[in-house]
Amino acid sequence: MTTACFEIIVQDEAQTRRFGQILGEIAEPGLIIGLVGDLGAGKTCFVKGLADGLGVDTEQCVASPTFALINEYEGRIVLFHVDLYRLGGIEDPDDVGFFDLMDANGVMAVEWADKLAESDFGDHLRINFDESDQTDRPDFRKISVKGVGTDSEKFCARLWKAAKLLEFK
Ligand SMILES: Nc1ncnc2c1ncn2[C@@H]1O[C@H](COP(=O)(O)OP(=O)(O)OP(=O)(O)O)[C@@H](O)[C@H]1O
Ligand SMILES: [Mg+2]
Question: Which CATH number fits domain 3-165: 2.40.30.170, 1.10.10.60, 3.40.50.300, 3.60.21.10?
Fold first, then answer.
Protein backbone atom coordinates (compact mmCIF):
# COMPACT_ATOMS: atom_id res chain seq x y z
CA MET A 1 0.00 0.00 0.00
CA THR A 2 1.25 3.47 -0.81
CA THR A 3 0.90 6.30 1.65
CA ALA A 4 0.43 10.04 1.50
CA CYS A 5 1.60 12.00 4.51
CA PHE A 6 1.62 15.38 6.14
CA GLU A 7 2.50 16.74 9.55
CA ILE A 8 1.27 19.72 11.51
CA ILE A 9 2.39 21.19 14.80
CA VAL A 10 -0.41 22.21 17.16
CA GLN A 11 0.42 24.52 20.03
CA ASP A 12 -2.35 23.75 22.49
CA GLU A 13 -5.46 21.70 23.18
CA ALA A 14 -7.71 24.14 21.29
CA GLN A 15 -5.71 23.66 18.09
CA THR A 16 -5.87 19.86 18.36
CA ARG A 17 -9.62 20.14 18.75
CA ARG A 18 -9.83 22.58 15.84
CA PHE A 19 -7.93 20.15 13.62
CA GLY A 20 -10.40 17.41 14.56
CA GLN A 21 -13.26 19.76 13.72
CA ILE A 22 -11.84 20.55 10.27
CA LEU A 23 -11.59 16.81 9.59
CA GLY A 24 -15.16 16.25 10.82
CA GLU A 25 -16.49 18.94 8.51
CA ILE A 26 -15.17 17.19 5.39
CA ALA A 27 -15.55 13.57 6.57
CA GLU A 28 -17.61 11.13 4.54
CA PRO A 29 -19.58 8.04 5.64
CA GLY A 30 -17.34 5.01 6.02
CA LEU A 31 -14.24 6.94 7.07
CA ILE A 32 -12.10 5.00 9.55
CA ILE A 33 -9.50 6.88 11.58
CA GLY A 34 -6.83 5.06 13.60
CA LEU A 35 -5.40 7.23 16.39
CA VAL A 36 -1.97 6.43 17.82
CA GLY A 37 -0.18 8.16 20.68
CA ASP A 38 0.76 7.81 24.35
CA LEU A 39 -1.53 8.40 27.33
CA GLY A 40 -2.51 12.07 27.33
CA ALA A 41 -1.19 12.67 23.81
CA GLY A 42 -4.49 14.26 22.71
CA LYS A 43 -6.45 11.50 20.96
CA THR A 44 -9.69 12.12 22.87
CA CYS A 45 -9.25 15.87 22.50
CA PHE A 46 -9.04 15.36 18.73
CA VAL A 47 -12.21 13.21 18.80
CA LYS A 48 -14.07 15.99 20.63
CA GLY A 49 -13.22 18.31 17.74
CA LEU A 50 -14.19 15.60 15.27
CA ALA A 51 -17.58 15.36 16.98
CA ASP A 52 -17.97 19.15 16.69
CA GLY A 53 -17.21 18.98 12.97
CA LEU A 54 -19.71 16.15 12.48
CA GLY A 55 -22.40 18.23 14.14
CA VAL A 56 -22.76 15.99 17.18
CA ASP A 57 -24.93 17.71 19.79
CA THR A 58 -22.45 19.10 22.30
CA GLU A 59 -24.79 18.02 25.10
CA GLN A 60 -23.59 14.50 24.29
CA CYS A 61 -20.34 14.17 26.16
CA VAL A 62 -17.40 12.71 24.23
CA ALA A 63 -15.28 11.20 26.96
CA SER A 64 -12.55 8.66 26.45
CA PRO A 65 -14.57 5.43 26.12
CA THR A 66 -12.06 3.37 28.04
CA PHE A 67 -14.81 1.83 30.13
CA ALA A 68 -17.50 1.55 27.48
CA LEU A 69 -15.05 0.46 24.74
CA ILE A 70 -17.36 1.80 22.02
CA ASN A 71 -19.48 4.97 22.16
CA GLU A 72 -21.92 6.06 19.45
CA TYR A 73 -23.00 9.66 18.76
CA GLU A 74 -25.64 10.98 16.36
CA GLY A 75 -24.40 13.71 14.02
CA ARG A 76 -24.43 14.63 10.32
CA ILE A 77 -22.80 11.20 10.10
CA VAL A 78 -22.92 8.81 13.07
CA LEU A 79 -19.67 8.82 15.04
CA PHE A 80 -18.32 5.63 16.60
CA HIS A 81 -15.64 6.34 19.18
CA VAL A 82 -13.65 3.24 20.05
CA ASP A 83 -10.85 2.76 22.57
CA LEU A 84 -8.71 -0.33 22.17
CA TYR A 85 -6.70 0.33 25.32
CA ARG A 86 -8.44 -2.43 27.21
CA LEU A 87 -8.38 -4.82 24.30
CA GLY A 88 -5.76 -6.87 26.13
CA GLY A 89 -8.64 -8.22 28.24
CA ILE A 90 -10.75 -9.12 25.22
CA GLU A 91 -10.04 -12.30 23.31
CA ASP A 92 -11.33 -11.08 19.99
CA PRO A 93 -12.41 -7.53 18.99
CA ASP A 94 -15.14 -9.17 16.91
CA ASP A 95 -16.82 -10.17 20.19
CA VAL A 96 -17.68 -6.51 20.80
CA GLY A 97 -18.78 -5.91 17.21
CA PHE A 98 -15.65 -3.99 16.29
CA PHE A 99 -15.34 -5.22 12.72
CA ASP A 100 -19.08 -4.88 12.04
CA LEU A 101 -18.79 -1.18 12.84
CA MET A 102 -16.30 -0.74 10.02
CA ASP A 103 -19.09 -1.52 7.57
CA ALA A 104 -21.70 0.62 9.35
CA ASN A 105 -21.10 3.69 7.15
CA GLY A 106 -20.38 5.99 10.03
CA VAL A 107 -17.17 7.74 10.91
CA MET A 108 -15.14 5.51 13.20
CA ALA A 109 -12.38 6.96 15.37
CA VAL A 110 -10.24 4.33 17.12
CA GLU A 111 -7.92 5.27 19.99
CA TRP A 112 -4.90 3.02 20.52
CA ALA A 113 -5.20 1.73 16.95
CA ASP A 114 -1.71 0.24 17.27
CA LYS A 115 -3.18 -2.48 19.51
CA LEU A 116 -4.29 -4.13 16.24
CA ALA A 117 -2.42 -4.69 13.00
CA GLU A 118 -2.60 -1.80 10.54
CA SER A 119 -4.03 -4.19 7.95
CA ASP A 120 -7.02 -4.94 10.24
CA PHE A 121 -8.37 -1.46 9.48
CA GLY A 122 -8.31 -1.78 5.69
CA ASP A 123 -8.44 1.57 3.91
CA HIS A 124 -8.12 4.15 6.69
CA LEU A 125 -6.58 7.36 7.87
CA ARG A 126 -3.88 6.97 10.47
CA ILE A 127 -3.05 9.84 12.79
CA ASN A 128 -0.09 9.84 15.18
CA PHE A 129 0.17 12.23 18.11
CA ASP A 130 3.67 12.93 19.41
CA GLU A 131 4.13 14.92 22.58
CA SER A 132 6.71 17.67 22.65
CA ASP A 133 10.09 16.81 24.11
CA GLN A 134 10.74 20.52 24.68
CA THR A 135 10.14 21.29 28.35
CA ASP A 136 9.31 24.92 27.59
CA ARG A 137 6.57 23.84 25.15
CA PRO A 138 4.74 21.01 26.93
CA ASP A 139 1.50 21.65 25.04
CA PHE A 140 2.99 21.32 21.58
CA ARG A 141 2.08 18.17 19.68
CA LYS A 142 3.23 16.89 16.32
CA ILE A 143 0.29 15.39 14.46
CA SER A 144 1.26 13.12 11.54
CA VAL A 145 -1.40 12.01 9.10
CA LYS A 146 -1.25 9.34 6.45
CA GLY A 147 -3.75 7.65 4.18
CA VAL A 148 -3.52 3.88 4.07
CA GLY A 149 -5.22 2.82 0.84
CA THR A 150 -6.41 4.83 -2.16
CA ASP A 151 -9.60 6.37 -0.69
CA SER A 152 -7.81 7.55 2.43
CA GLU A 153 -4.88 8.91 0.43
CA LYS A 154 -7.32 11.09 -1.49
CA PHE A 155 -9.01 12.13 1.72
CA CYS A 156 -5.64 12.92 3.24
CA ALA A 157 -4.86 15.33 0.39
CA ARG A 158 -8.24 17.06 0.86
CA LEU A 159 -7.64 17.31 4.58
CA TRP A 160 -4.24 18.86 4.05
CA LYS A 161 -5.77 21.53 1.81
CA ALA A 162 -8.57 22.22 4.27
CA ALA A 163 -6.17 22.47 7.20
CA LYS A 164 -3.69 24.60 5.26
CA LEU A 165 -6.38 26.98 4.02
CA LEU A 166 -7.26 27.58 7.62
CA GLU A 167 -4.73 28.22 10.32
CA PHE A 168 -2.33 25.29 10.03
CA LYS A 169 0.81 25.31 7.93
N1 LIG B 1 -1.77 20.32 22.10
C2 LIG B 1 -2.55 19.57 22.89
N3 LIG B 1 -3.50 18.78 22.32
C4 LIG B 1 -4.28 17.99 23.08
N5 LIG B 1 -4.23 17.91 24.41
C6 LIG B 1 -3.31 18.69 25.03
C7 LIG B 1 -2.45 19.54 24.30
N8 LIG B 1 -1.64 20.18 25.17
C9 LIG B 1 -1.98 19.75 26.39
N10 LIG B 1 -2.97 18.85 26.32
C11 LIG B 1 -3.54 18.13 27.47
O12 LIG B 1 -3.19 16.76 27.29
C13 LIG B 1 -4.29 15.93 27.67
C14 LIG B 1 -4.78 15.15 26.47
O15 LIG B 1 -5.75 14.26 26.94
P16 LIG B 1 -6.54 13.24 26.03
O17 LIG B 1 -7.58 12.64 26.88
O18 LIG B 1 -6.98 13.93 24.77
O19 LIG B 1 -5.39 12.20 25.68
P20 LIG B 1 -5.54 10.75 25.04
O21 LIG B 1 -4.48 10.66 23.99
O22 LIG B 1 -6.92 10.48 24.64
O23 LIG B 1 -5.10 9.82 26.25
P24 LIG B 1 -5.61 8.33 26.64
O25 LIG B 1 -4.70 7.38 25.92
O26 LIG B 1 -5.40 8.30 28.11
O27 LIG B 1 -7.05 8.17 26.23
C28 LIG B 1 -5.36 16.86 28.22
O29 LIG B 1 -5.19 16.94 29.62
C30 LIG B 1 -5.04 18.20 27.57
O31 LIG B 1 -5.44 19.30 28.35
MG1 LIG C 1 -8.32 9.04 25.17
Answer: 3.40.50.300
